Amino acid sequence: MLPLFIDAILVDYNIGQFLLLGFVLTTLGALPLKSQQVIGINTMLFGVIFVLTPASLLPNVYLFLGLTLLVIGPMVYVTARG
């Protein structure tokens, strides 16, 4: 029964929307740590995931989001006080 429920959810959304939800949730989960380095690493990781996901699975908008995250992530990491 659970696979049918998950399959019904996946029909309405694409993988890019699930990855974006994962990025938002992990960023919100890292906020209580108050570590800018963790946020930077998280941003870079999801940038890589968005860029490496095959284009047939998600729209091109998410590729540009991944490239943007790959530019912003290192800036956030470098500007952190360590």
UniProtKB/TrEMBL annotation:
<keyword id="KW-1133">Transmembrane helix</keyword>
<feature type="transmembrane region" description="Helical">
    <location>
        <begin position="38"/>
        <end position="55"/>
    </location>
</feature>
<feature type="domain" description="DUF8006">
    <location>
        <begin position="2"/>
        <end position="81"/>
    </location>
</feature>
<feature type="transmembrane region" description="Helical">
    <location>
        <begin position="61"/>
        <end position="80"/>
    </location>
</feature>
<feature type="transmembrane region" description="Helical">
    <location>
        <begin position="13"/>
        <end position="31"/>
    </location>
</feature>
<keyword id="KW-0472">Membrane</keyword>
<dbReference type="Pfam" id="PF26028">
    <property type="entry name" value="DUF8006"/>
</dbReference>
<protein>
    <recommendedName>
        <fullName>DUF8006 domain-containing protein</fullName>
    </recommendedName>
</protein>
<keyword id="KW-0812">Transmembrane</keyword>
<dbReference type="InterPro" id="IPR058319">
    <property type="entry name" value="DUF8006"/>
</dbReference>
